[in-house]
Amino acid sequence: MADVRFHAIRKTFGKVTAVDDVDLEVADGDFVVLLGPSGCGKTTLLRCLAGLEKVDGGRVLIGGRDATNLPPRRRRIAMVFQSYAVFPHLKLFDNIAFGLRMQKEPKTVIRERVDFAAKLLHIEDLLDRYPSQISGGQRQRVAVARAIATKADVLLMDEPLSNLDALLRMEMRAELKALLRQLGTTTIYVTHDQVEALSMGDRIAVMNAGRIVQLDSPLAVYDYPADTFVGGFVGTPPMNFLAADISRNGAVPLVNLSGGSFPLDDPEVGRLAGRRLVLGIRAEAIVVEPAAGEGLIEATVIVVEPLGSHNLLTVKTGDDLLKVSTPPHLFPEPDSLIWLRLEPGRIRWMDSESGRAIPLADPAAAPVPG
Q1: Are strands 252-257 and 77-80 parallel, antiparallel or unpaired?
Q2: I want to staple 4 with a disulfide (CB 3.0 to 4.6 A). Which of 11, 26, 108, 315 is the partner?
Q3: Which residues contact residue 112 at a Cβ distance below 8 angstroms, ignoring those fewer than 6 apart?
Q4: For the whole model, what pTM was predicted?
Q5: Into which CATH architecture does domain 4-232 fall?
Q6: What is the spatial distance between Cα 317 and Cα 340, in angstroms, rounded to a whole number?
Q7: What is the pLDDT of residues 207-243, one digit of tens each?
Q8: How far apart are CA 60 and CA 66, in angstroms?
């Protein structure tokens, strides 16, 4: 067993609380991504698990053992750092073998495991070179191979791809995901890059101000954010947020925005009348119509950004600026009028005071965590 459990973990630096009463369970073989902006506590939480930071409260359990006060060498973890941390004076073979030699493994075991890890990372032909003789991407592979070779119970990764260029980062992302699935090692991966988080993890723990604000599958985090922070942080572009209130047009609820109103035939929405609301919707869930019609919102095009696979429009409706994703053939002129249809099934409702999502009793909708 190599499950990981954080129970009420707290870590402070002087008057700053970096990790604030965090609970998290990572099952054996699970791949969990800690996602959040700089300073949210994700790397500190990882270092608390590794034993590189002493917690101020709570417990860390690894494989059912209380590891809270164990030194790093006894926690059976391996860590890949953002800076790679390869030794420049050692050949690649010796870099990968370093942890095994610290564990005093026999030479035959060291050779076997180094060869195994090097082949997995496609660097078996480079083992006689020094780090200065290989590229940044290859040095990253060495760091991952060194961690894999130790056959640790838990693999920790702290923004391991952030120093690579965009194309190499995309290639390594796919390779690393396939590799970790093949190994089945319990993995906790820290990143501020939402694309990495959405594309790689089995689950994402979104952190803000030292707390986990949502823990869910990547699709649930994207489609059903727990609050306006998650919706605004996850997604490119982030979720659109509009001040809204609900009134009634006979039996049908009417959604009133600063740029206009439209009916929404959903009795659950009608029950939100009288609350201060925020309407959240993704750019790709807004359909552009060329002419006015029932249920459409008028908008003025501000900017058009052609992105190849689609165009990204910035439009203004009433007091609100929105991002709208359109097919590449739809290319309206700046300052022109367009009309927007908000897909009813993709609208998310948030409380304007707390920012928390308001789950509706819709059997087709996934539940909102938290």
Answers
A1: unpaired
A2: 26
A3: none
A4: 0.89
A5: 3-Layer(aba) Sandwich (3.40)
A6: 9
A7: 999 999 999 999 999 999 999 999 999 999 999 999 9
A8: 6
